[in-house]
Amino acid sequence: MAEPIRVLVTGAAGQIAYSLLFSIAKGDVFGKDQPIVLLLLDITPMLPVLDGVVMELQDCALPLLKEIIPTDKEEVAFKDLDAAILVGSMPRKEGMERKDLLKANVAIFKSQGAALEKYAKKTVKVLVVGNPANTNCLIAAKSAPSIPKENFSCLTRLDHNRARSQVAMRCGVPASQVKNVIIWGNHSSTQYPDVHHCLVNMSGSELACFDAVKDDAWLKGDFITTVQQRGAAVIKARKLSSAMSAAKAICDHMRDIWSGTPENEFISMGVYSSGNSYGVPEDLIYSFPVQIKGKTWKIVDGLPINDFSRSKMDATAAELIEERDTAVTFLGNK
Predict the structure, then answer these.
(1) 329 lies in a domain?
(2) Res. 96: pLDDT tops 80
(3) Which residues make up each annotated binding site for substrate?
(4) Percent helix, percent strand, percent coil in the chain, to nearest 5
(5) Which residues, 6 or more positions from 259, have their beta carbon under 8 angstroms from its beta carbon?
(6) Taking every annotated instance into account, which residue ranges of this chain make up the domain Lactate/malate dehydrogenase N-terminal (predicted)?
(7) Residue numbering of the annotated binding site
(8) Which helix (H) or strand (E) holds 268?
């Protein structure tokens, strides 16, 4: 057996974590022969609920799960981490301005970034899920200066999976037959789901998405808004935010970081925008198409971008710049 790896999940008593922890502990993410120590962080009032989650994990009798450490202390949770999945964040409450939400989350992710800096391994892979995910991720990365910026990413895989599924349903094929959709930009309603480079396998031959779907108006209209608004639609229907699908996307994202992406395929994740070929401003966490090998991601360069795509990529970048600049004022230093 390999040495156990230490994996942190924050917001561990919450509903995304409830759907996520079993998959991690079972070996679906880091590998079927990779023992795991699970560190579960939540706020003090949630500790009794967290104890119930721990009991359930114990009762699953999972062979790979070597130890479970529930805690409300960052110095315990962040110690010697190999992977950190930061799910917990301040949710937006009714009547709350986006600025207030940013302010509350800057405090959380500044603190967690500092804890990563102080206690975690420098090789730790950090995935930020809690919203606003891109900006929270940037704050955490800035607060952990000795951990490479490349080790931080935020979750846009849920949007990627949503886009893939919409195309698959439209074409009447399984989602596995659709590849290379792209989510550009922010994990918000300004994100741009782009299918100009997407391929659909229709009865054995790969077609460009526009040729497979044969409905340009839908692909440039309702398809985009459906993906952009999907989170809100789930909340409206369920009265709760996406949990099962978010957990599945987290698993997909971390498994690809650990094991790599398939040949000739790319996936979407929010990564640091330094030195990209798409004219996306520097110093943002922006969702790009990436390929991963040896636990290292690389932005897929050189894809042609038409004017339609360009304007949408710029709009979501503008939102991210505004979010970042607001968040940085709360950090108290530039």
Answers:
(1) no
(2) no
(3) 92, 98, 131, 162
(4) 45, 20, 35
(5) 31
(6) 6-152
(7) 42, 92, 98, 105, 129-131, 162
(8) strand 267-272
Q: Verify that 143 and 162 share a domain, yes or no.
A: no
Residue 123 lies in a domain: yes
**In sequence order, what are the residues at sequence separation of 6 or more whose Cβ sits closer than 8 angstroms to the Cβ of residue 297?**
150, 153, 257, 269, 271, 290, 291
In this structure, is residue 146 part of a structural domain? yes
Pair 127, 167 in one domain: no
Do residues 116 and 180 both lie within one domain? no
Placement of tokens 């974590």 in the chain:
17
Q: Tell me which of 104, 131, 154 is where a domain ends.
A: 154
* pTM metric for this prediction: 0.97
User: Residues 138, 243: one domain?
Assistant: no
Catalytic residue of the set 187, 196, 197, 253: 187
Average pLDDT over residues 124-133: 96
Long-range contacts of 118-121 (CB under 8 A, 24+ apart): 118/75, 118/78, 119/74, 119/75, 119/78, 119/79, 119/80, 119/81, 120/78, 120/79, 120/80, 120/81, 120/84, 120/144, 120/147, 121/80, 121/81, 121/82
The two structure tokens encoding residue 298:
């690389």
pLDDT digits (tens, 9 = 90+) for 235-248: 999 998 999 999 99
Binding-site annotation: residue ranges for NAD(+) = 42, 105, 129-131
Domain that holds residue 137: 5-154
Cα dihedral 22, 23, 28, 33 in deg (nearest 10): -20
Is 45 part of a structural domain of the chain?
Answer: yes
pLDDT at 333 > cutoff 70: no
What pLDDT is attached to residue 334?
A: 42
H-run or E-run covering 267: strand 267-272
Does residue 204 carry a pLDDT above 60?
A: yes
- Structurally, how many domains does the chain consist of? 2
Domain closes at, from 90, 125, 154 = 154
**With contact defined as beta carbons under 8 Å apart, do 128 and 140 qualify?**
yes
Is the per-residue pLDDT at 1 higher than 80? no
